[in-house]
Design goal:
This protein is α/β, with parallel strands linked by helices. It has helices at 4-18, 44-47, 53-63, 84-102, 117-134, 156-166, 173-183, 200-203, 243-247, 351-359, and strands at residues 29-30, 33-38, 74-76, 109-114, 142-148, 215-220, 281-287, 305-306, 311-313, 316-318, 323-327, 338-342. It comes from Marinobacter panjinensis.
Length: 361
């Protein structure tokens, strides 16, 4: 375990190198392992379904361009107008075959997913060995998955979208605006693609068999779409995905944090946390300010809070710097104030850079 001084030095170094380390040659590996990306829901696919798989690949490339694209060795791209157990699985399998044939994961890969990519990844992890072995190919060896704003537990916005699709009444106007922001379309039966799978009950019944691959969860709590979606999501959320999903909670009940004694802002206090987490799911960092898409490298100025830390998961060392301090509110004239925990300096960089620099040791 690192001393506080050593941890602070490590974070300071991460902040210094964040802006310039990767300006030149791409550093494609993470902790010595190849990286495979699985993107999230792309609403454009519902309004304008991709004409062919080249269009799917192009959109997948653009999705990760902010940070992770240059640090990856392969992607699994998929069209959001499809279903996980249908077209999405077919598209993913063709890419899994190529990754296997190229031997990219012979020395283990790390999967990085975002949003609905968490659900797609879970389905692939449950089935990829059987699929590939049936064709005489080597299954991918996966060390761990890094899941940003994971939607594996679904989102109430998808439930609303399906409801609006079958009940387009004028009095549902506020709901329709939230759903339109999320889906990008006026919901209609048969045109919602993977949104069907993102319904909370549907997501929580899709590929839920436990496995030995750790899922490292990175949780956001900021706003998206100007905040109009937040009233319709249970518990805290990032404007798209509820905390119960992003943390990996075993139920879809609304919660406020991934743990019962620490808020998304890092305040040490009693919280409405999950009653349990899915097997091998580990909430690593929470960040109250960063948005659903901002976790992928586009937002700074937000404090990250360590939850599961100073541990090794399947050989991947998780050792974020940590600082505990007291802070008094402006109206508190006496006492030591409230206690907080944070990753020092995390507001000086974006969440993806922080995660990459910390885990890449």
């Amino acid at each position: 375990m690192k001393t506080r001084k050593q941890s602070a030095c490590k974070t300071a170094l991460a902040v210094v190198v964040a802006g310039g380390l990767f300006a030149g040659t791409a550093q494609a590996q993470l902790a010595g392992h190849n990286v495979v990306l699985v993107h999230g829901f792309q609403q454009e696919d519902l309004a304008n379904p991709p004409a062919n798989f080249d269009a799917v690949k192009s959109a997948g490339e653009d999705y990760w361009r902010t940070f992770w694209l240059s640090r990856s060795d392969a992607r699994i791209d998929w069209g959001s107008n499809g279903r996980v157990e249908g077209n999405i699985a077919q598209q993913a399998y063709e890419q899994l075959r190529q990754i296997s044939q190229q031997g990219l994961c012979n020395d283990y890969c790390i999967v990085v997913s975002h949003s609905t990519g968490d659900l797609v990844t879970r389905y692939l992890l449950e089935n990829q060995a059987r699929w590939l072995q049936a064709e005489g190919l080597q299954p991918l060896r996966i060390l761990a998955a890094i899941d940003y704003s994971g939607a594996g537990g679904g989102t109430e916005l998808a439930d609303l979208a399906m409801s609006i699709a079958y009940n387009d009444s004028w009095y549902n106007w506020p709901l329709k605006q939230a759903v339109r922001a999320f889906t990008g379309i006026e919901p209609e039966p048969g045109k919602l693609g993977v949104v069907n799978d993102l319904q909370t009950n549907a997501a929580r019944n899709l590929a839920v068999s436990p496995n030995n691959i750790p899922r490292l969860r990175f949780v956001a709590g900021g706003s998206s779409y100007g905040g109009i979606t937040k009233p319709f999501i249970a518990g805290t959320d990032d404007g798209v995905v509820p905390t119960h999903s992003a943390c990996g909670a075993t139920t879809g009940n609304g919660i406020d944090s991934c743990t019962s004694n620490l808020s998304l802002a890092g305040k040490v206090s009693s919280q409405n946390g999950p009653s349990g987490l899915y097997y091998n799911h580990f909430p690593i960092l929470m960040n109250e300010g960063v948005s659903h898409s901002g976790v992928l490298g586009s937002e700074t100025g937000n404090i990250s809070v360590p939850v599961v830390n100073n541990t090794t998961l399947n050989g991947l060392q998780v050792d974020f710097a940590s600082r505990t301090y007291n802070k008094r509110a402006w109206w508190q004239w006496w006492g030591s104030g409230d206690r907080y925990v944070e990753v020092p300096g995390s507001d000086q960089t974006d969440m993806s850079t922080l995660v990459y620099n910390t885990l890449n040791n």
